[in-house]
Give the backbone structure.
Amino acid sequence: MQLMVKARRYDHVLRVAELARAIAAANHLDADRAYLAGILHDIARDLPDSELLRLAPPEVPIDSAHPLALHGRAARTLLERWGYRDEVVLRAVEDHTTGPRSHCPVSACVYVADVSEPGRGVNEDIRELAMVDLEGALAQAISSKVHYLQARGIPVHPRTLSAYRALQARGALPCGDA
Ligand SMILES: [Fe+2]
Ligand SMILES: [Fe+2]
């Protein structure tokens, strides 16, 4: 793992893994799997676009336009090739770029940890909220991403939109927009 990413990225990866584990433990979830998924989440982040497109063939136009966003799905493909079969970990790795599917709390831990790890210097509020209210922290993380992109006219990935709408359907976000 350490060999696959740049040194600075590896520091980020360790912070994400540790934070994902702490968030999982605070919410009575599987802390070991959250840590493992955190360690593995960015293994494809430093691959060239051509490799990302090969490992994660585009499913929607935005995938071809922004191959970097494929690094979650590409990482899953690599892990499967290496023999990983734990669907909870695979899903958390795959979905860390576009947002967790419903009823995947370990994915939520990794997603929230990735956007709020201390090295980013932002989202301290999300990090603190995640310790007591994971769903609320996820809602805040996903909605700020969606609103940020929409305000700039940048298309939102369909998987991110469905994560957003699922949070609305569960009452974690107000309905009516996006
Ligand atoms: Fe990533
Ligand atoms: Fe990351």
